[in-house]
Amino acid sequence: MLESYLPVLVFIAVGLCFGIGLMGIGWFVAPNRPDSQKNSPYECGFEAFEDARIQFDVRYYLVAILFIIFDLEIAFLFPWAVVFKTLGWSAIGAMGLFLLLLTVGFIYEWKKGALEWE
To answer: Within a 10 A sphere around the Cβ of 88, how many other Cβ atoms?
Structure first.
């Protein structure tokens, strides 16, 4: 049984050796000449206006969650709709549960005011 996993293990080992080898070659060959210009923080080609560790408004995260909700819904609904006629009741129930969870997330977003633009 272990011999069926041997190609996968060989593939992982070759991939790791290849990746680590190339990174090692780059680390040894690349020039290392740091100066104040290279080490200075920049934003769009000029100095930053303020500290990068500022606190973001929670609406930023709510909009991100809203995007994920609709993106996931579309990503899962298209393939499901293509094979809809061949699906059984368990698949229809699973998609119903999935849509219910997305609807709960959407209602949460609505109640938090993420859909209100100022």
So the answer is: 8
